Amino acid sequence: MTQTLTLRRPDDWHLHLRDGAMLKGVLPETARHFARAIIMPNLVPPVVTMADAKAYRARILAALPQGMVFEPLMVLYLTEGTDPADVAAAAASGLVKAVKLYPAGATTNSASGVRDFDKVRAVLDKMAEIGLPLCVHGEVTDSSVDIFDREAVFIDTVLDPLRRKTPGLRVVMEHITTRQGVDYARDGGDDLGATITTHHLIINRNHILAGGIKPHYYCLPVAKREAHRLALREAATSGDARFFLGTDSAPHVDALKEHACGCAGCFTATNTMALLAHVFEEEAALDRLEAFTSSNGPAFYRLPANTNTLTLTKGDAVRWPAKILTEAGPVTVFDPGFPVHWHVEG
Ligand code: DOR
Ligand code: ZN
Fold it and tell me: Which residues in the chain show pLDDT less than 70?
């Protein structure tokens, strides 16, 4: 018996596409399955202004292969110099769908991020007024805080005070990795959403560290212990409208992953939909996959859901390339470590 699953076409609410040769190499991997994606602005230099976002969007569309349809949803990188009027104009034009908060030093290319929240107060107030979401990388950067605790500490010491100071600010907790993240998002009211990556539904910290260090499983926030992975699975497969897919697919060439100081990021664009079907089937929640990948995200962002579809069928073990060969160098595709039987058609 063939098992078939047809979903509204999915969107990715957190994606790194980079630029230049890397962009050209990885964009088809996302555009093959996803209609739209929230495009992370942590380029070097970052995408800070409306003009930067407009130019980056044009480069993404120019890199899209003939015949593929894909809509990049642009995001501005919040700095202490961001102009509230520029943010408002970028949102009003329809070009920009969110602003990204990186605490300075939290992750890849976050040096231009925020150190002093009072310096971005006027921007946050403007965003609350116009309903523009703030996407938050939720980890403290204090080196005295254990890396596995940085998300939970951020929620208590930064995120919650920030939300109290800016009533009405719409916030996406990005790539949550902990039970505390799940609990805070679930209780946070209508102004709060949370994305969950594919890889955090599959790996825990043992996958990175036990039996030899596995750099391709290293990302930020780093995967936590098993109880947290199970809390994420429960949230993602619950159908709760606050939780939606943001893959955080983050390509780095192998030379920079397999390195004495390896970059953070798992590249999951190629096989995310097959992996999610597997995970949701394991949780007896295939009927809730569409909510997670295709309905909850647009609802939070106040955008129409896609009207076209994506079909998956169950069959022999799927084979995907171990690496995507970009002109910037090879990028290793996330390996879940188990066979997956859901094929994306087309
Ligand atoms: O693993 C990650 N990779 N986490 C981030 O926050 C940034 C991303 C990247 O840009 O490589
Ligand atoms: Zn990211």
Answer: 1-2
pLDDT at 155: 98
| CB contact burial 17-28 (16+ within 10 A = b; e otherwise) | bbeeebbbbbbb
3-344 in CATH: which number? 3.20.20.140
Distance between Cα 25 and ligand 1 center (Å): 18
Q: Please work out whether the CB of residue 26 comes within 6 Å of at least one atom of ligand 1.
A: no
Instruction: Please report how many Cα atoms fall inside a 13 Å half-sphere around the Cα of residue 140, on the Cβ side.
Output: 18
Q: Is the CB of 224 under 6 A from ligand 1?
A: no
Residue in 14, 15, 16, 203 to alter for ligand 1 test, most ligand atoms within 8 A of Cβ: 16
Is-contact 292 232, C-beta < 8 A?
Answer: no
Spatial contact of 246 and 195, defined as CB atoms under 8 Å apart: yes
What pLDDT sits at residue 2? 64
Express each pLDDT in 279-311 by its tens digit.
999 999 999 999 999 999 999 999 999 999 999
**CB 110 near ligand 1, within 6 Å:** no
What is the largest distance, in Å, between two alpha-carbon atoms of the chain?
60
Under 8 Å between Cβ of 306 and 297: no
For residue 147, what is the enclosing H or E element?
none
According to the model, what pLDDT value does residue 281 have?
A: 98
Backbone angles phi, psi at 95, to 5 degrees: -70, -40
Tell me the whole-structure pTM to 2 decimals.
0.98
Dist. CA 98–CA 39, nearest whole Å: 10
Cα–Cα distance measured from residue 321 to residue 323, given in angstroms and rounded to the nearest whole number:
5
pLDDT at 1: 57
Which H or E run contains 57?
Answer: helix 50-63
Return d(Cα 142, Cα 151) in angstroms, integer.
Answer: 11
**Where exactly are the structural domains of the chain?**
3-344
Note the pLDDT of residue 316: 96
